[in-house]
């Protein structure tokens, strides 16, 4: 573990490779066998370059606050086409695909699959900052890929249709979304990216899948890793408590918007916990999790948990890093006021590269733009280089996927017949990417 100090003045980005790096096959000018470290050093030069924050956003607090309060409505405009998935347990996910008109893209064009942060969705500025250049045609300087944002239950206008929410430790919803995406585009490489809470979910999913993982690679940004340690840090300082209450109130406000749905099952434990949670007054995120997430954050088993602490023990992603079997790039910032502990050793896993910028805050990484007084996100450069390297240069060994089949109208995986999804309806819904959710602070 590495404990971080937000007053550091260095600009250098620390990139930590394992003692032994996985050996992979790449195809560029010729077919070669190289280490994953060599691939990253050769194809991801921005990762090893220092990040210089905008002069008026010199520390993690200002970077984070700008991520929350900045006006990004005129930047990285994206339009999505939403597909609603009904899950076997009655829950609903919203999958936002872009570009809407993809007729000029080849069927095997890589697809970036996104998991958003705590109470976010496809509208988040940090999501759009990555997907805008990802989906831009190569003739305009982009990668020319498809992308899809998996909006958690209850987020970004997705309804709650069963007595269950989402959390940092529940991976089955993402797993079922992958069933659908990989069936819809069977020849396309899937590249995962997660932000904050979504990064924790993505890391756990990749680790749980091991060699059966359907993703070609993964990238996690601002991952909270050790949930208990980072929550303790937030509770131990005045400014940390402000962040914690901001996130806790965001969760309360999101839950309040779904009370009508949850009230349909008043005797269910999740509904009861929701009624208790919405009565909390400016709770910390720990208080919210100890009231609601321990009960409603996932399916049984292992939910419900006896306490928020037990939920943190289960859901933390730092413990499962040893099980990752695909290339995974992690980037955190040393002055992140929300995440103060990062497992830079990654348990020595040969498939993982850990990077730590000196500045950037929580999902910020704002640097000066070419237009005077404007900023852009530095993070898009190393992330796009990583996507290109792992989708088009890296040659994946024969994957060991389990078969997906349709049973009773649901797509399910052999051995996981308790899970499954189906398209809710064929009605096309267009989503404007800059339109957030009422009552919810963006950027968290």
From TrEMBL:
Species: Pisolithus tinctorius Marx 270
Protein name, entry field: AB hydrolase-1 domain-containing protein
A GO biological process held by the record: medium-chain fatty acid biosynthetic process
Pfam families: Abhydrolase_1
Domain spans labelled AB hydrolase-1: 110-341
Molecular function (Gene Ontology), one example: monoacylglycerol lipase activity
Lineage of the organism: Eukaryota, Fungi, Dikarya, Basidiomycota, Agaricomycotina
Family indicated by similarity: Belongs to the AB hydrolase superfamily. AB hydrolase 4 family.
Location of the active site: 196 (charge relay system), 336 (charge relay system), 362 (charge relay system)
InterPro entries assigned to the protein according to its UniProt record, in alphabetical order: AB_hydrolase_1, AB_hydrolase_4_sf, AB_hydrolase_fold, ABHD4
């Amino acid at each position: 573990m590495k404990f971080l100090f937000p007053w550091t003045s260095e600009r250098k980005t620390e990139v930590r490779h394992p003692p032994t790096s996985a050996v992979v096959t790449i195809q560029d000018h010729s077919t070669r066998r190289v280490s994953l470290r060599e691939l990253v050093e050769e194809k991801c030069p921005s990762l090893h370059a220092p990040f210089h924050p905008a002069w008026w956003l010199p520390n993690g607090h200002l970077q984070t606050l700008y991520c929350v309060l900045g006006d990004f409505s005129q930047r990285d405009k994206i339009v999505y086409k939403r597909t609603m998935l009904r899950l076997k347990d009655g829950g609903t996910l919203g999958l936002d695909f872009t570009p809407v008109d993809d007729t000029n893209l080849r069927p095997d064009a890589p697809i970036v699959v996104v998991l958003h942060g705590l109470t976010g969705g496809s509208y988040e500025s940090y999501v759009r900052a990555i997907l805008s250049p990802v989906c831009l045609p190569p003739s305009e300087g982009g990668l020319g890929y498809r992308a899809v944002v998996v909006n958690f239950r209850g987020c970004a206008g997705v309804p709650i249709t069963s007595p269950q929410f989402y959390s940092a430790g529940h991976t089955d919803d993402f797993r079922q979304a992958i069933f659908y995406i990989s069936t819809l585009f069977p020849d396309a490489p899937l590249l995962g990216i997660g932000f904050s809470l979504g990064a924790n979910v993505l890391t756990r999913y990749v680790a749980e899948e091991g060699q059966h993982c359907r993703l070609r690679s993964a990238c996690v940004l601002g991952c909270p890793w050790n949930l208990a340690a980072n929550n303790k840090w937030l509770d131990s300082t005045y400014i940390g408590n402000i962040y914690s209450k901001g996130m806790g109130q965001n969760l309360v406000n999101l839950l309040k918007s779904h009370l009508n749905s949850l009230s349909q099952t008043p005797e269910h434990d999740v509904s009861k916990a929701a009624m208790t949670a919405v009565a909390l007054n400016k709770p910390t995120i720990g208080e919210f999790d100890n009231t609601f997430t321990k009960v409603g954050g996932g399916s049984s088993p292992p939910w419900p948990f006896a306490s928020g602490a037990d939920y943190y023990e289960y859901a933390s992603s730092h413990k499962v890093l040893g099980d990752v079997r695909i290339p995974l790039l992690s980037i955190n910032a040393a002055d992140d006021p929300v995440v103060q502990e990062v497992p830079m050793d990654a348990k020595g896993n040969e498939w993982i590269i850990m990077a730590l910028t000196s500045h950037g805050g929580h999902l910020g990484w704002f640097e000066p733009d070419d237009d005077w007084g404007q900023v852009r996100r530095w993070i898009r450069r190393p992330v796009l280089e990583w996507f290109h390297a792992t989708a088009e240069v890296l040659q994946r060994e024969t994957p060991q996927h389990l078969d997906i089949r349709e049973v009773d109208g649901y797509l399910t995986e052999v051995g996981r017949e308790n899970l499954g999804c189906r398209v809710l309806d064929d009605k096309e819904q267009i989503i404007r990417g800059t339109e957030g959710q009422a009552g919810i602070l963006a950027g968290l």
